[in-house]
Amino acid sequence: MWRRSVTFRALAQRSLAQGGRLKAPMPHSFPIAQRWISSHSVEKLQKCASTGNWKAALNVLAELDKAGETNAEAYELAIEALGRDQKFEAMESLLETMQYDGVVPTSPTIDMMVQAHLVNKNSAKIISLVTGRLRENEPVSLAAFHSAITECSELGNASNPEAILDILRTTRDSATVLTADEYAALIRCFGICKRSDLSMHSYYLMKENGVQGNIEVFTQLIRSHISVGAVQQAMHVFSMCDQQGIVLDESIHAATIGKLCERKSFWLACELFATMEAKGVHASPYCIAKMILAYIRTNNLSAAYAMWHRIQEMNPPANISTYMGIMHDCIVTGELDLLLEAFADMQEKYKTLPNVAYSFAIRGYGRQGNMEGALRLMDEYVQMYGPPTEATNYIAVFNALARSGECQDPDTTRRTISHYWDMMVKHVNDLQAPAYASAAGAFASNGDIVELEKLLEHSKLHLPESEALMYSGAISGFAKSDENYSEHIVVFLKKMADQGIPLNDAAVRAASDSFVKYERWNDIEDLLHYMEPKAFAKPQGVIGDVLSKLLEVDNWSLARKVVDASLAWDIQPHIRSKPLVLQKLADNKDGDPQWKIAYNLALETVSFATINEEHVYAVCNAMKVLFRAERHNLVARLWYALKVKNQLPLPIDAYKCIVLSSLSSGFEKAANTAADEMLNMLQKYHADIVDTSDVSDVFSVIISAFAQHGQDEMVLRLFESMDSIGLRANGYAYLAALRTHAEVNNDERVAQLLDSFEDYMSASPIDPSVMNDTLCSLVSHYAQSRNDKMVLSVFELMQSFQLEPNSYAYNAAIRAYSRRRRLDKVSQLQDELATSPSHVHYRVVDTILKSHLLAKDVSAIEQTIVQFNCKPDDVLTTLFHGHQVHPVATFMKSQGPLVEKRPTQLSLPMQTKGLKWLLSRDATAQAADVALFLLQNGYRVQSHVFESLLDQLSLEGAYDVGTMLLDAFNHKRSMMNSTTGVVDSMLTMMGNARQYDEIRDLFLESSQMFDVQQYGLGMFLCMDGGKFVHVLKIFEKLRQRFIEPDGKVFCLAIDSCHALQDTRVAKLIVQDIVRHKFEGKVVKELHTRLKFALSPNAIAIDPTLVERVGALVLFLEDAGFPVPASVTSKLLARPALEMLSLRTRTRIHCSLQAMNRQKPFRPWWKVNEEP
Fold first, then answer.
1. CB-count exposure of residue 659 (10 Å: 0-12, 13-18, 19+)
2. Where does each PPR repeat begin and end (predicted)?
3. Per-residue pLDDT tens digits for 170-191
4. Do 741 and 663 share a structural domain?
5. Any domain includes 552
6. Residues 669, 617 share a domain
7. Closest-CA residue to 1039 (of 1062, 1010, 1061, 1063)
C-alpha cells in the first residue's frame, strides 16, 4: 500500500510538471455526485471535486490508498477533480489503477471518461470503454451508449457496432436497459455502415427484449434498407408500420420514393405514395416531383398531371432545382408536353432561369417537331438576355432542326441554320467541334447536301482536327431523319474511307441504326470493312452495339460474321441482354444451333470480375447450345472457366445448372462428377453457410433430376448427405428418396421417412397429385411382394392426410385387409368409395366382392351391388366361380319383386342359367325355393327348366313342393324386363383438409412477407372450396401489402365476384386494373385459360371450361373492362366456337362487332410510333 501511495504522489508530481492547461474549455456537464459520506477524507475529495483541486484530491486519494480505504466513489471524485482541470492523461492513469486494484468504476466515472475522450476526439477509446462495460455487464449510461454509437457511425466500420450487438444479444438480464431511442441509434449506425441485415437483427433483438418500436426506429430501419437499395425490405417495414398504426414522417416517405424511382420500381412508388396520402402526410415538392416520374413510367398520365398541378399551386413556389428535376425526367421519358408546361410555369414564377432550362425546352419543342416553338423560344431568350454565350442552346436548336422533317422547306431550314450558326460563331468564345457537328446533323437530316458540303469545307479551314466529328455528325443527322438516307450514309462512309478518316463510335452506331432499320444487310458487311477498332473510344461497346442490334432481329448469319470480325480484332464485344439472347438460342431447338454466337456470349459473361446467378444461368444456356452442336470440348471450357472464376466455392446454382444440363444432354458421368464436387464443397463449408434454404432448394432440385433419370445411387447419396448435415430437402426430393429406398427394398428407412412425412410436406409447397402418385406407386410396389404391413402403412398414411389413392392402391389395400381378416376396414373403404363423387374402377369393386365372397357375406355383396351400381349378372357369374350353392341361391332370392326393379334383379337368361347351375349341383331344394320365389314375385321361369325341376322333385318324392310350384307357375306368367342404373383433387395440405378459414387467417393476420404466387395459391384454394368471400379478403390484403398483382390473381378475384354476382366489387377491381395499367396481365391470363381449356386433356376433364372462359369475358365487359379483340376472336373461332352455348356465342359476337365499329383507324406504318 505504501508503494501505491508513492505512485499517487508521483502521479501528482508528474501532472504538476506538465504545466499549463488545455486550451479547449472543459464541458460543464460533468456529473457531480451528491452523497452523504461520514468519512472526513471523502468529504475532502468532494470539496476537491467541486473546485477542481486535483492536486489535493490525488494526495487524499494516496492517503486513502495507504490506509486501504479506496473505493469506486473515491476514485470517481478524484477523476472528477482531474476532469475539471482537463488532466486527461491523469484520468486515464487513475482508471488503469482502478482496474489494477480490481475496483469497478461507477457509471458517472465512465461518463466523465467518455467526455474526456470526446474533447480529445479519441473515438477508439470511447468505443472500447463502452464495449468493455457492456461485455462485463456493468451499467452504462444512455448518454455514454449514444456517444459510442455516434463514434461508430463516424468511423463507418460495422465491426464495432456488430460487437456491441453480439454483446447485447448474448447478455441476459443486462445491467444497461436500452430504450427504443438507443436501438434506433444502433440501427442508424448499421445503416451508415451499409449493413441493413444487422439493422434487422437489432430490430428483432429489440422486440425480443419487449421494447416497442417508435417512429425513429422504423425510420432508421427503412433508411438502412434504402441505403443499400433493398427497397422490398423497406416496403415490408412500411407494411409493419401500417399494421401497428404508426405514421412515419414525410421525409422517409420521400427518400424511399426517390430510391424506388432510382431502382425503377415505379409501381411500388405509386403504392407507397397512395398510402402516404391516405394517412394525411403532406408531400414535399421533391416527393411530388418524383411521383410525376413514377406516374409517367407507369403510364398513368392523368395522375402525373395531377401531381404537376399540385406543384403549380404551391405558395411559395417550388424551388428551381425541383423544376429542373421535373424537366430532366420529362426529357428522359419523352413526356414533352409536361416539360414545356414546367418551363412555362417556371418562367412565370422566376425572373431569371438557368441556361440549361432553355436548352431543355428547345430540345422538347424539337422532339415534338415544333420548329416554330423551338425557334420562338430561342428568339425570346435572345431578346431577354441577348445571344447565348454558351453553345448549349445553339446545339439544342440544331438538334431540333435535325428533326424538322417536313415542317419546313429546305431553304428555310438552311437559312435558319445559317442564322444561328453566324450568331454562335460571333458570341461563343472558343467554339468546339460538337457545335459544328450539330449543325452538320441539322443539314443532313433535311437532305441538304450542298450546304452540308459547304459546312464541311468551312470546318476544314477553321477546325481541321474536327473532320471526323463533322462526318459523324452528318451521318447521325441522316440516321435521325424520317426519310431513308441510307444511300447518303454509304456515300459519306466511302468518303471517310477514301480520305483516310477513321470512323468514330457515333458514326458506327448511327450508320448501323439506319442499316438495321431499313434492312440493308450488305451495307452492314461493308461497314465491318470500314471499321478500325483502334480508332474507337470504346471498341467493345461499339462492336457490341452492332452485334446486339443484329441479335435483336435474329439475323444469326450476319451476327456470326460480326463475331468472326471481333475475334480477328481480338476484341470482346459488350453485348446487351446476353442472358435473354442465350435463353432464346437455348430454346430454339428447331434450327441449327448457333454455337459460335452462344460460346462468345458465354465467354464474355465469364470474363466479368464477378458473376451472379443470372450470369451462371446464361452460361448454362450456352452449354445447352454447345451440347446440341456436339461441341463437348467447349462445354468443358465454359465449365472450367466458371469453376476457376472463384477459388473458394462457386455459387451452388452453378452446380445445379451443370448437373441439369448434363443430365438432359445425356452426360450422366459429367453430372455425377459435378454432383460429387458440390457434395464435397457442402461438407467442407456447410458450417459457414448462414442461410441454408437456398442450398436445400438446389440439392432438392438436383435429387429430383437424378431421380427422373434413374440415378438411384446419386439420389440416395445426396439425400442422406443432406440429412446428415441438417439440411431439409423439399417435398419432391423427399418423395424421390422415398421411392428409391422402396425400390432397393430398404423397408426400415422407408418407415422412418414415412414417420417424417408431415414435416417434409409442410416445409415446402408441393402438388398433391405428385404426393398421390408417389405414395400410390409405393403401395403397388409393396403389393407385388405381398408386403401387407408396408402396403397398409403407406395407405393409412395417405388416408390420414386426406390424399386420394388410385385404383391400384385401393386394390392392394383391400386385399391386404382381406388377408388379415379386417373386413371392417374393407367395409369402411367400401362406404368411402360409394360416397365419393369420383368414378370407382371396376377392378376395385371386383376386389371388394371377392373379399366378401371369402367371408361368405352375401348381404355385403348385395350392398356392394347397390352402392356401386354393379351388373347382377356379372356378380352371379362371380358366385358361380365360388362353387358354393347357398350364396347363389340367396343372391337369386334377393332380387325382390319384379315391379320394384331393384338393382339386384337378374336378367331372364341369367335366372335360367342360375337354376340350371343349381340343378347341376344336385341342389334341388334350393332350386325349387328359388323358382318359387321367382314365380311368386312376377318373374318367368323357362318351361324346359321348370319341367326339369319338376322331374327332379318327382324323383325325390317332394310332391307338395311340386304342387306349390305348379300353382304359382299357372297363376302368374308375367314377363317383365329388369333394368339397371357411381375426390376432389387437393392442392395443398390445408386445402386437403378443407381448412379455408385457416388459409384466410394466414394471409390476413400474419406479418410474414408473401409473394404474389403464394397469394394466388391461397385464393385458388378458397375458390376451389367455394369460399368466394375469402378470395376477395385475401385479394384485399394483397393490395394493402404493396404486392403487385398478376393476371391470375385479378381473374380469381373477378371469378369470385362472378360467383357472388357482385358487380359493384367487380367494377372496383376493374377500375384498379385500368388505373394501374394492368390490362395486359388480365388479357394474358385470359389467353392462358382459353389455351388450357382447348387442350385435349382439359376437354376430356371438363368440356365446359371454354364456356366458363366466355362467361368470365362477358362478366368483365359488364364490369367495364375492355376485353381486346384478340380474346373474343379466339372464342369465336373453331374449335372454341363449338363449345360455347348459343347465348354466350351471340353476346360475344355482338361485343366484337361493337368494338370493331368503335376502333379508330391507324395506318400500319404508324403502329410503332408514339402518339
1. buried
2. 71-105
3. 888 888 889 999 999 999 999 9
4. no
5. yes
6. yes
7. 1010
Low-confidence ranges of the chain (pLDDT < 50): 1-38, 648, 973-989, 1161-1171
- Rounded to the nearest 5°, which phi and psi values hold at 25? -70, 145
Distances (CA, A) of 1162 to 368, 401, 889, 1167, 1168: 20, 27, 84, 7, 11
Q: Please give the Cα distance from 553 to 38 (Å, whole number).
A: 95
Q: Residue 181, CB half-sphere, CA atoms under 13 Å: how many?
A: 6
Residues 697 and 678 in one domain: no
Q: Do 542 and 637 share a domain, yes or no?
A: no
Q: Rounded to two decimals, what is the model's pTM?
A: 0.49
DSSP state of 366: H
1097's grid cell: 386433356
Q: Which residues contact 101 (CB under 8 A, 6 or more apart)?
A: 70
Q: Kindly report, residue by residue over 516-558, the tens digit of the pLDDT.
A: 888 888 888 888 888 888 888 888 888 888 888 888 888 888 8
Question: Which runs of consecutive H residues, i.e. helices, occur in 883-1011?
Answer: 885-892, 908-920, 924-936, 943-956, 959-971, 989-992, 996-1005
Give dist(CA 467, CA 524) in Å, integer.
Answer: 23
What are the cell numbers at 866?
A: 347397390
1062 in the same domain as 1148: yes
Last residue of a domain, one of 531, 565, 599: 565
Residue 1074, amino acid: V
**DSSP 8-state code for residue 684:** H
Domain boundary residue, one of 718, 747, 766: 766
Which among 768, 770, 731 has a CA at the least distance from the CA of 753? 731
Q: Are residues 1081 and 1065 in the same domain?
A: yes
The closest alpha carbon to 867, from 838, 822, 833, 905, belongs to 833
C-alpha cell at 288: 411530388
Give the DSSP H or E segment for 78. helix 72-84
* 647 and 633 in a common domain: yes
| Residues 588 and 656 placed together within one structural domain of the fold | yes
Into how many domains does the chain fold?
4
Phi-psi region of 156 (alpha: psi -120 to 50; beta: other; left: phi over 0): left
